[in-house]
Amino acid sequence: MKKAMLTSALAATAAARSMPHFKRQSNSSTVQGFDVSGYQPNVNWDAAYNGGLRFVYIKATQSTDYTNPDFSSQYEGATNAGFIRGAYHFADGTVSASAQVSYFAQNGGGWSSDGITLPGMLDLEGDCIGVDWIQEFSDGYYNMYGVYPVLYSSPSWWEQCTGNSNAFVNTNPLFMACYDSTPCTPQGGWPYFTFWQYADSNTYGGDSDLFNGDYSQLQTLATNG
């Protein structure tokens, strides 16, 4: 997730961009969404929903010493507007994974089987983090909630930092970052991506995302993990 404030020029570019098209085995339906952080404190949630977006990931925490000061108001706004929503944690490989998953859980990253809460997402970008660290965070989250976190990364980061590990294919949904009009080949042996971040801007703020399935499948993810 980009840390810098998005400019109005970027937002205008995103608005003009046509939506990407792709096919997945046995499923070509998609749901539009976006992700935001503390750099977008004043999202017009009703406008975003009326504009066709249906899910959002909101940054909650980073490492063990940062909590998004706008998270609660953003989460409440998204909920009131009707979004399926979830929280994400920006990983810091220099600090214990167990400590970070606890910090995330204590500051908005929890999950419940209510049909509107997406499993927490682990944001993996920037400095490399190894497979063992990711596994510790993933297992810690699972032990708390009975679901595995969504893993966000670009194909290039995953290949460089994990050696293109396939350790998470059977447990964790993939949130693939690939800024193009067509999706990249999913990294790490995943047969498909669950979410795709296809642009680093959005008309309503943040980044533009797709869920690789229809709305009922998105609800299932928010119900069963």
UniProtKB/TrEMBL annotation:
Q: Which GO terms describe its cellular component?
A: extracellular region
**Chief site of localization:** secreted
Give the protein's biological function: This enzyme has both lysozyme (acetylmuramidase) and diacetylmuramidase activities.
Record family assignment = Belongs to the glycosyl hydrolase 25 family.
Q: Does the keyword Hydrolase apply?
A: yes
What organism is the protein native to? Neohortaea acidophila
Pfam families linked: Glyco_hydro_25
Indicate what this protein is called per its UniProt record. N,O-diacetylmuramidase
Substrates-to-products reaction catalysed: Hydrolysis of (1->4)-beta-linkages between N-acetylmuramic acid and N-acetyl-D-glucosamine residues in a peptidoglycan and between N-acetyl-D-glucosamine residues in chitodextrins
Q: What is its EC number?
A: 3.2.1.17
Primary enzyme class: hydrolase
Q: Which UniProt keywords apply?
A: Antimicrobial, Bacteriolytic enzyme, Disulfide bond, Glycosidase, Hydrolase, Secreted
Report the locations given in the UniProt record: Secreted
Q: Name one GO molecular function term.
A: lysozyme activity
Q: Which biological processes are named by the entry's GO terms?
A: carbohydrate catabolic process; cell wall macromolecule catabolic process; defense response to bacterium; killing of cells of another organism; peptidoglycan catabolic process
